[in-house]
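Please describe the entry underneath.
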Amino acid sequence: MAQAPNLLNDDGTASMATAMMMSHHAFRRDLARFTKALGALSPADGERVAALQEEWKSYRASLHGHHQMEDHGIFPGIAAEHPDVAKTIEGLGADHQRIDPLLERGDGAFAALATKKEEALAVVRELLGLLTPHLATEEEHVVPFLRGAKSFPAPGTDAEAEMYAMGFSWAMHGIAPEVLEKLAVMLPDVLTTRLPAARAEFEGRCVRVWGSADCGAAVTPIPNGP
């Protein structure tokens, strides 16, 4: 298995590769959290059940949206410009098709979480089994092509800016401060000014859902926190 790549470029700058891998970190981080929380869940704890149900909705939306962005925004261009990785990218797209039905199973299990805890846990474990090699393949074969993109487009509306701020606050959680400092350089002011409030809101959400906002300080897409 290849060594996990650094979130920052070799010259210490952030890029779109950084942003993509921070999402990978968050996907891994939250699957570990779901596994732990579901294992300890009491079906009688209605407040925690409701919190996990809402968090699943957010997770599956983030994962599906990430795959849609890759399938329609990132992968086609890279495959066209670099035919040597086209077969790998085709395989990554096929993985997305395998993951979609699993997300639908998760919807059903989490909607009835008080009685389907074991089914929800099985879905999370299966999703982890699919995503682990999938994300590693992207990091080895796709991420290098994103290292040169060092700016993030400014959102067109306030609503879009708020959406991106919340998305970045999710992806930033558990990332080392030195990485976040470099990331801020490539983000437009309309986002950076919103991030402190968005990050504080997300930390409160973590406490409600997971019982803690502690999550390490990673410099690669592999979580290193509790």
About this structure: The two ends are 23 Å apart (CA to CA). The mean pLDDT is 96.
